[in-house]
TrEMBL record:
The lineage of its organism: Bacteria, Bacillati, Actinomycetota, Actinomycetes, Micrococcales. It comes from Nostocoides veronense. Pfam families: Emfourin, Peptidase_M4, Peptidase_M4_C. It comes from the Bacteria. This is Neutral metalloproteinase. Residues 49-99, 358-394 are annotated as: Disordered. It is found in: Secreted. Its cofactor is Zn(2+). Residues 187-356 form the Peptidase M4 C-terminal domain. It is an enzyme of class 3 (hydrolase). Extracellular zinc metalloprotease. Keywords: Hydrolase, Metal-binding, Metalloprotease, Protease, Secreted, Zinc. Residues 102-184 form the Peptidase M4 domain. Its EC number is 3.4.24.-.
Length: 499
């Protein structure tokens, strides 16, 4: 990951559509808690550099060789004490006695259980395979309805006490968020479209494996639910996602109905949440759960090792789509167990059942080429003369600016005539639209190695005169353009706000 990712990455466990739904609830307290979570996450995205933990406060250990399991986990738990400045007060380090605070205990134990899965099942020492210390802060914010991985540590809220309880209570949530760190250190799956949905799915898979292994549950005994321990009160027993049956995790007036598809026929095409990364992850989730239950036994063994081998192997790329990933898992199964093995056939069958691969009997050996045509043709190089000549921009031209994604997955759109903007903004828009600046940036993004990051913003701009329809990840925008977009989105012409 690049340095930019260090200050933009935010991976939350509660999907955007759930928080947005709760923010519109008729229950004033629930709506306020949801809005506070959304506002806080966006504020942390903008101000993380100012709140970064001093290097002197971070736990240290000698850098280990890749593959070494020397020394065990290194954990440090801090208490934010209802505030939002991280990390808070250090309350428990590695090997320290229990403090009596249940959230501290759950966080400490959950980090250890996650480390143990990677160490004992996959011979990996922490997120980076070199013993990276695991840090977490508890009691973050007031009635805070979320938990997130910010690229350096875990952060847990206590929940609103009505819909959500303690976020430390769900072991698969802890495993999910930490798995984003593993993905960052390995495949680096871009956070957009199908690669982004795979990124989310990898976290659900390994988060579920942490819980299953801790409980000693076989694939048949596992509930395959993500976040089942979070929902309380009248929603107890429901969850954020179901891996075995996407679309069935919840269905109630407060949260609505789980929108996840379980088959490619129902794939959701959307501009929200980086192309539906939290929604379409249901498809690869179901493929893994189907594979595990068809083979039986412990899911962290054969299925988990196949998925881990692909995630950490040389064949996967940051823009990997569903078909390519499926083909890589088939190849890994064939390499390890043989072309006609039950394991290889089961992998192929699981992906066929969710519509990613065709029927098992289509290929002579049941395999799918890892680098197939599913990814589509790659865009060609952008020539210097591809940038359009400057065009006149009429004062009555209407520009539509849209911001989607972000930590909470909020979407905001504003359409306004240029003549209604402050003079400074109007002149900037005339220059940007007339000079083809946005088209040139979008072309470089499509042709280059750059990629969106988890929970980063994406900006879209549409204008009829001159014709403009672009979408650009935040980290690819120069600061002055991002500020122009935010100022335009803000009704008062000041700093941008979430809504």
């Amino acid at each position: 990951m690049t340095g930019d990712n260090d200050h933009t990455t935010r991976c939350t466990i509660v999907p955007p559509h759930i928080l947005e739904r709760l923010a519109l609830s008729g229950d004033a307290e629930l709506a306020a808690a949801a809005r506070e979570a959304l506002i806080d996450l966006d504020a942390r995205r903008l101000h993380r550099r100012a709140q970064a933990t001093p290097e002197s406060d971070r736990p240290r250990r000698p850098r280990l060789a890749a593959g070494s399991l020397e020394g065990g986990p290194v954990r440090l738990i801090s208490d934010a004490q209802g505030g939002t400045r991280l990390p808070g007060t250090s309350v428990r380090g590695e090997g320290d006695p229990d403090t009596g605070d249940v959230a501290v205990t759950e966080a400490y134990d959950g980090l250890g259980d996650t480390w143990a899965l990677y160490a004992e099942a996959f011979e990996r020492n922490s997120l980076d395979a070199r013993g990276l210390p695991l840090r977490a802060s508890v009691h973050y914010g007031r009635d805070y309805d979320n938990a997130f991985w910010d690229g350096t540590q875990m952060v847990f809220g206590d929940g609103d006490g009505k819909i959500f309880g303690r976020f430390t209570a769900s072991l698969d949530v802890i495993g999910h968020e930490l798995a984003h760190g593993v993905t960052e250190h390995t495949a680096g799956l871009m956070y957009q479209g199908q690669p982004g949905a795979l990124n989310e799915s990898m976290s659900d898979v390994f988060g579920s494996l942490v819980k299953q292994r801790k409980l000693g549950h076989s694939a048949d005994a596992a509930d395959w639910l993500i976040g089942a321990e979070l929902l309380i009160g009248e929603l107890a027993g429901q969850a954020l996602r179901s891996m075995i049956a996407p679309g069935t995790a919840y269905d109630n007036p407060l949260l609505g109905k789980d929108p996840q598809p379980g088959h490619m026929d129902d794939f959701v095409d959307t501009d929200e949440d980086h192309g539906g990364v939290h929604i379409n992850s249901g498809i690869p989730n179901r493929a893994f759960a189907l594979l595990a239950t068809s083979l039986g036994g412990n899911a962290w063994e054969v299925p988990g090792r196949i998925w881990y081998a692909v995630l950490t192997g040389p064949g996967i790329s940051a823009d990997c789509d569903f078909v390519t990933f499926a083909g890589l898992t088939v190849d890994a199964a064939i390499t390890t167990y043989g072309v006609d093995s039950p394991e290889a056939l089961a992998v192929r069958s699981a992906w066929a059942q969710v519509g990613v691969l065709g029927p098992v009997d289509e290929g002579e050996d049941g395999s799918e080429p890892a680098g197939g045509e599913a990814g589509g043709s790659e865009p060609g190089p952008v020539a210097d003369d591809d940038t359009p000549d400057p065009q006149p921009v009429p004062s009555r031209a209407v520009v539509q600016v849209r911001r989607s994604g972000g930590l909470a997955g909020l979407s905001k759109t504003r359409s306004i005539s240029l003549e209604d903007l402050p003079a400074g903004q109007e002149q900037q828009w005339r220059s940007v639209l007339g000079g083809g600046t946005l088209q040139a940036i979008e072309a470089r993004v499509k042709d280059g190695p750059s990629r969106a990051v988890p929970d980063g913003y994406c900006y879209g701009v549409i204008c009829d005169l001159p014709p403009t329809d672009v979408e650009i990840p935040e980290q690819q925008l120069p600061d002055h353009l991002r500020e122009l977009f935010e100022d335009t989105l803000a009704d008062d012409g000041g700093p941008g706000k979430s809504s």
